[in-house]
Amino acid sequence: MHIKPNRVKLLILSVFITCTCMTANALSFQFGDKGGEVPAIQQQLIKMGYKPIPNEVFDKETKWAVRLFQKDRGLTVDGVVGPKTYRELMGKDISQAKPAKGKVLGTKRQKLSKNKNDEYKPSIVSKNASDILATANSFIGVPYVFGGTTPSGFDCSGYTRYVFATAGINLPRMADEQYRVGYSVPKNSLQPGDLVFFETYEPGISHSGIYMGNGQFISATSSRGVAIDTLMSGYWSDHYVGAKRVLK
User: Fold this and answer.
1) How many CB atoms are located within 10 Å of the residue 34 CB?
2) In terms of CB atoms within 10 Å, which of 12, 36, 109, 178 comes out highest?
3) In which residue ranges of the chain is pLDDT below 50?
């Protein structure tokens, strides 16, 4: 079959335009990206009142800032700077952006052994822990709100921070920052009032809760709001990373 030269040119042009559009639409910036447009994104976020650390890496602080920006602008809150978020943030089409130069690998979840040392021991609830648990329980059913730090709506670290603040204990804002305070507690030595931490939607610490005793903990979940769950089996057991004690 003979194809006219002009038709061949049109076909080539059509393929080129399609590929170009697909490349532009596929371009995005997300957790782990390094270089390229990432520094400019960080600087723009800072100018608009959000405060990532300007280190050329799309790290957790940058993802957090992007999610807050998306929430404020009514965009899909996923922490990814895709075409819509990029245009809203940078004021131009993402096809004009410099692609990231590479990925920075995140930390991998700590795999905890399943043995007799992981069994939960009965514990005596201290006065401070009793107050903490009473406050924590009073918020059961409060809805999950990304960035929420008050009883009108909590995210996980906003919830733990608020509960401990009522007892005069100031925790950092984010879950991975909270994991850096206090001292580590083995799983078989957990006491009510200990902070428990999990790896969920990204590498590293991304969820925090408060241990209640008998293998249960309470936290602000994205699906059910503030709720009680178990550490002994299922999703939370598989994603458990460790615990910290901040109560004396």
Assistant:
1) 16
2) 178
3) 3, 8-25, 105-120, 122
Region of 91 please: left (phi>0), alpha (psi -120 to 50) or beta. left
- In this structure, how many other beta carbons lie within 10 angstroms of the beta carbon of residue 183? 8
**Which two three-digit tokens encode residue 243?**
């615990």
116-245: CATH, from 3.90.1720.10, 1.25.40.10, 3.30.2130.10, 3.40.50.300 = 3.90.1720.10
Instruction: Say how many CA atoms lie within 13 Å of 218 toward its Cβ.
Output: 21
Q: Which of 93, 72, 73 is nearest to 28 (CA)?
A: 93
Beta strand pairing status for 149-150 and 216-221?
unpaired
Domain 5-103 grouped into CATH 1.10.101.10: yes
Q: CB atoms < 10 A from the CB of 111, how many?
A: 9
Q: Kindly report, residue by residue over 22-57, the tens digit of the pLDDT.
A: 333 458 998 889 999 999 999 999 999 887 788 888
Residues with Cβ within 8 Å of 59's Cβ and at least 6 positions away in sequence, in order, are 31, 52, 53, 104
Other C-beta atoms closer than 10 Å to the C-beta of 184 total 10
